[in-house]
Amino acid sequence: MKVKRRLQAFFVQEEGEEARVAFVAGGKLIHYYLPIKLLHDAGVRVENQPFELDELEATVAGVPMTGYKVRASAPAQDARTAPLGLDQDRQQKLAYILGRKWDAGR
Questions:
Q1: pLDDT tens for residues 21-63?
Q2: Is the per-residue pLDDT at 95 higher than 90?
Q3: Strand 50-60 relative to strand 28-35, pairing
C-alpha cells in the first residue's frame, strides 16, 4: 500500500451522517464532505480540530483500489472553538497585523 497524497484539513461541522471538512491546498480552503464515522473512528470529534487524510492506493489481485486513512493532528480537547477575548489594545494590534484599520466606534 502506498500513500498517493497527504492532505491537511480540519473538521468544520457535523451534518447528520456526514462531516463537512476543509482541506488546505495551495493556500486555499477546499470544502468537502466525508462520512462522520471516518473522522470519529480516528478521534476527530470537535469543530476546528485539525487532522491529516492520507489517500492510499493498493493493488489487490491486479485491481487498483483507493482508500483513506484519517489521523487527528491534535487531541479534541486542544481544538478551540470559542473566540479569544481581546482588550482594545490587542484588537488594534491584531488589526494592524492583519492590515486592517481599527474602527474604535464598533
A1: 999 888 788 999 999 999 999 999 998 899 999 999 999 999 9
A2: no
A3: unpaired
User: Quick check: is 23 in a domain?
Assistant: yes
Q: Report the candidate in 40, 54, 53, 47 with the shortest Cα–Cα distance to residue 11.
A: 47
Q: Are 48 and 83 in contact (CB under 8 A)?
A: no
Supply the CATH number for residue 69's domain.
Answer: 2.40.50.140
Residue 52 belongs to a domain: yes
Helix, strand, or coil (residue 50):
strand
Total tally of structural domains belonging to the chain:
1
How far apart CA 19 and CA 67 sit, in angstroms, is 17
Residue 67 lies in a domain: yes
What is the gyration radius of the CA atoms in the chain, in angstroms? 19
Grid cell 470537535 is found at 46
- Contact yes or no for 65/47 (Cβ under 8 A): no
> At which residue does the C-alpha cell 464532505 appear?
33
